[in-house]
Amino acid sequence: MTATTFDSLSPLDGRVVGTFPVQGADEVAATVDRARRAAEEWRALGFSGRRRALDAWRRDIVAHLDELIALVRAETGKPAGDARLEIMLALDHLAWAASHARRVLRRRSVFPGLLMLNQSATLGYLPYGVVGVIGPWNYPVFTPMGSLAYALAAGNAVVFKPSEYTPAVGVWLREAFVRAGGPADAFAVVTGLGPTGAALCRAGVDKVAFTGSTATGKAVMAACAESLTPVVIEAGGKDALLVDEDADLDAAAEAAVWGAYSNAGQTCIGIERVYVHTAVAGRFVDRVAELTADLRAGVDDAARLGPLTMARQADVVRAHVADAVAAGGHLRVGGLPPEGAVIPPILLTDVDERSTAVREETFGPTLVVNRVASMDEAIRRANAVRYGLSGSVFSRRRGKELAMRLRGGMVAINAVIAFAAVPALPFGGVGDSGFGRIHGADGLREFATAKAITRQRFRLLTLTTMRRRPGVDRIVDRIIRALYG
Ligand code: NDP
């Protein structure tokens, strides 16, 4: 019996989107137990059986696309077009994971080396068993899909704890999986608040995939440490976009504005800072200001920016903007955010690098543009925060060089966020942005354990015997000198 429930409220109008149980430790543990039994069945399907099930799930999502778009919009407040885009990317990852799992994870032969020529050596990747997925609310389909699709394709059952702000989307995704014929307990959902997520970490899962804030990521890791449960942490970011003096300024401005304000800035890989070369800063900032001033935030269908999903996030945005202005920053577009969750986009320029608007994740519709004398300075400033998720570089001649020097797991040159839409590329960061990778072959391997096997084909020089004779040691001595000297 569940003692309590909670409501998911739409940030658009406050209506109740759905009511869900607050599941406690016992219920979460029981769900993980059922998933463990289902994991056997799921694993036994093999790569091709799982591919069929995941493809059927994908088609079912497409068949009910409008329903899912409406639900994402209702729970997050984002415009329907943005919800559609998010779902498209998630589907691309689902398709990729399903169709590449065999190639990446199947058992293959490896060269045994000269010393072990009498052995055949093979390497394969086995599923962990049950993976706990803790997801955020900002992209309630795309973000968890980076773990769900890859963990399932690798042969694991999953127990998904969606954010308390987007439980309906989480439950919907699982219903679609079951409707499409997937084994019901191989993809389970538990609902509740933070403690339900904490319970999932302690419920005997074999791995936890977490996406959310750095602070909660640390709590998740601490809980997992009690049982040595491995984790992959996708935490926040403070991504920078660099604009070189030879950049296409129109394209860079367009990208900065989209990177900063789409999804009302609630994007882990969103652009929160720009470092622009002084030689082109004036023209660049004018163009960004023009594009920013054109955007409207609201709860109506035509608004380009929706309200913040989590109303209390507005306090963080206000505090960061106030801090930037107090330290001498210039409010070029917008003002101190009004009360409420609808925040018109804010463009700040020449902000002190020590201000929270430059150093901390804002997760709202703000953009800081600072000018730099050289791209070396841009790199130095961009890399001076604890986060290291991703970034963007606009340059005609030095794109690759600057991308290599930008700290983080992913960089887009002459675009923003492009890497997240390439399923073959791994996604993840360094430092306070977390560790481990989802997406791509690395993402599949993240949800599998390597299993190495050797098979002796014939007897050669037997070294691992207590009866080894001095003559063999002399041969070993010659081998060492011949091969490694
Ligand atoms: P959290 O990190 O608190 O939440 C992320 C997920 O973790 C949610 O499902 C949450 O559940 C769950 N959770 C909360 N506490 C625990 C716990 N102790 N153990 C296990 N799971 C837990 O992020 P918030 O939603 O509170 O957002 C706060 C800030 O985090 C944002 O302002 C933003 O800066 C950052 N963030 C970054 C994201 C990214 O994509 N990198 C995504 C989301 C947030 P519940 O929602 O039910 O509390």
Query: What is the straight-line distance between the termini?
Result: 70 Å
Query: How many domains?
Result: 2
Task: State the strand order across the main sheet.
Answer: 12-13-14-11-10-16-17
What is the overall number of helices? 16
Task: Categorize the overall geometry.
Answer: globular
Beta strands, count: 20
Task: Tell me the name of the CATH homologous superfamily of the largest domain.
Answer: Aldehyde Dehydrogenase, Chain A, domain 1
Any idea what the CATH architecture of the largest domain is?
3-Layer(aba) Sandwich
Contiguous runs where pLDDT drops below 50 for at least 5 residues: none
**How is the quaternary structure best described?**
single chain
Q: What Rg is obtained from the alpha carbons, in whole angstroms?
A: 25 Å
Largest sheet: 7 strands, mixed
Secondary-structure content class: alpha/beta
Task: Furnish the topology, listing elements before pairings.
Blueprint: E1 5-9, E2 16-21, H1 25-44, H2 46-63, H3 65-76, H4 80-105, E3 108-110, E4 119-127, E5 130-134, H5 142-153, E6 157-161, H6 167-179, E7 187-189, H7 194-201, E8 207-211, H8 214-225, E9 231-234, E10 239-243, H9 249-261, E11 271-277, H10 278-293, H11 313-326, E12 330-333, E13 346-349, H12 356-359, E14 366-372, H13 375-382, E15 387-388, E16 390-394, H14 399-405, E17 410-413, E18 430-431, E19 434-435, H15 440-446, E20 448-456, H16 470-484
Parallel strand pairs: 5-6, 5-8, 6-7, 8-9, 10-11, 10-16, 11-14, 13-14, 16-17
Antiparallel strand pairs: 1-2, 3-4, 4-20, 9-19, 12-13, 15-18
Helix pairs in contact: 1-7, 2-4, 2-6, 3-4, 3-6, 4-5, 4-15, 5-15, 9-10
Bound molecules: NADPH dihydro-nicotinamide-adenine-dinucleotide phosphate.
Residues 134-138, 161, 163-165, 193-194, 197-198, 201, 211-213, 216, 219-220, 235-236, 268, 313, 361, 363 line the site of NADPH dihydro-nicotinamide-adenine-dinucleotide phosphate.
